[in-house]
Design goal:
This protein is mainly α and about 400 residues long. It contains 20 helices and five strands.
């Protein structure tokens, strides 16, 4: 018995070492053997999928390998486990680009979740797999069951998953119940990392709409891979309630309701709308993050090889044609109309410059984070004191 445990531990350590060395195919082979020898150990199954995904990224038959991994996930990760395992299966399916299978599994899982954490996982994945018009019924079902679960919890756990309930109310646009619940539980939420976002929404819901539209909102309109994540983090450090790409309270891609609810929004879910936002929010300011076009193109494809399995325009279009419409619409509008993404970058840059050419200079900041610009330029533009912490540099790789 002891020898068996020792052998298993040695194999597991070998697989970890192979992963550290970037030997993904070899690590996957070890984990696959372990998963077959110990079929009740779910860690080996998930570790195998993770390593095998990395191993097949650059292979000529990666599409066939991904389909095989998709089937493995559905048969071995999604079945027989609890809420945590089912959530992992959804993460894998999203990473593999198996959108139809993910949507079907999510619909099945939604009926089976057993814990508040399981409810929260479903809530997070619904916008990734389900079209906007079909989400409401799922959200309402989750909200109803979450409240039942919480009612059965002991008194000291009654506030478990409170943030999930508030997020569901926002997603359903049930603003009065949201405000009432936030006011009732404000003290409990005060220690939450999302408190500032929840509070900002509550404050704006209490204002006349004209006052919200008159706020000095901030919109980061740079394309992805231009430092938009770093910009969002910097705005948070400056005390501004900020969302990047999605609203972290509802997990949906940023849209008009989020622009209204939040103090700042960044990334390419904002970029296509900057002309309309300029007129809708007359006191808003815009930050156009930029970088060298060749560097940007290299970073763009490196990013999409990882998240979309795409390395040229044809595979890029095919990938996004399978995704929920809100996601695909943004990507096609920004990158899909030109023969090359470098042309798309130049076209958007020209669009921004043409629009702001006759606008007041204080409305637009052009910021090149990759060239070293940071706090001095940003804080001068916003009229904020320079923080004592370094300017954040996130999602940085050797190509950025």
């Amino acid at each position: 018995m002891q020898a068996g445990v020792s052998s298993r531990n040695a194999a597991n350590e070998k697989a970890k070492s192979l992963l550290d060395q970037g030997a993904f195919a070899e690590a996957a082979a070890v984990y696959l053997c372990l998963s077959e020898e110990f079929p009740h150990n779910r860690h080996y199954k998930t570790a195998y999928v993770g390593a095998a995904m990395e191993a097949c990224r650059d292979l000529p038959d990666s599409r066939q390998r991904r389909e095989e991994l998709r089937d493995y996930v559905l048969q071995n990760v999604a079945v027989g486990g609890g809420d945590k395992d089912r959530a992992q299966a959804l993460r894998f399916l999203a990473a593999l680009g198996a959108w139809r299978e993910g949507a079907a599994l999510l619909t099945q899982i939604e009926k089976q979740v057993e814990t508040p954490k399981g409810i929260d996982a479903c809530f997070r994945f619904i916008p990734r797999f389900v079209e906007q018009g079909s989400r409401r019924a799922l959200w309402q079902s989750l909200l109803t069951r979450l409240r039942r679960m919480r009612a059965d919890l002991p008194e000291e756990r009654k506030d478990e998953a409170l943030e999930t309930e508030l997020g569901l109310l926002l997603a359903l646009e049930r603003f009065q119940p949201y405000s009432a619940l936030f006011d009732k539980k404000r003290q409990h939420l005060a220690g939450s990392g999302s408190f500032k976002l929840f509070e900002g929404v509550r404050t704006r819901l209490a204002k006349p709409r004209s006052e919200v539209f008159a706020e000095p909102k901030i919109f980061g309109i740079g394309l992805s891979r231009t430092g938009t994540t770093s910009l969002a983090s910097a705005l948070e450090i400056l005390g501004i309630d900020t969302a990047h790409w999605t609203n972290p309270l509802t997990h949906q891609i940023l849209s008009d309701v989020d622009f209204f609810m939040l103090g700042a929004c960044t990334d390419c879910s904002v970029s296509p709308h900057f002309e309309r936002l300029y007129h809708l929010y007359p006191n808003a300011r815009f930050i156009f993050t930029q970088r060298d076009a060749d560097d940007w193109t290299q970073s763009f494809w490196k990013h999409h090889r990882r998240v979309s399995w795409a390395d040229d325009m044809e595979s890029f279009r095919q990938s996004f044609a399978k995704r929920p419409l809100a996601d695909a619409e943004i990507e096609f509008a920004l990158y899909g109309e030109e023969p090359d993404v470098r042309d798309s970058y130049r076209a958007f840059e020209k669009r921004v410059h043409n629009f702001f050419a006759d606008k007041p200079a204080e409305k637009l900041l052009e910021l090149d984070i990759s060239a070293g610009q940071g706090w001095n330029a940003l804080c001068a533009f916003l009229g904020k004191p320079v923080p004592s912490v370094p300017f954040p540099k996130l999602n940085v790789s050797q190509t950025v």
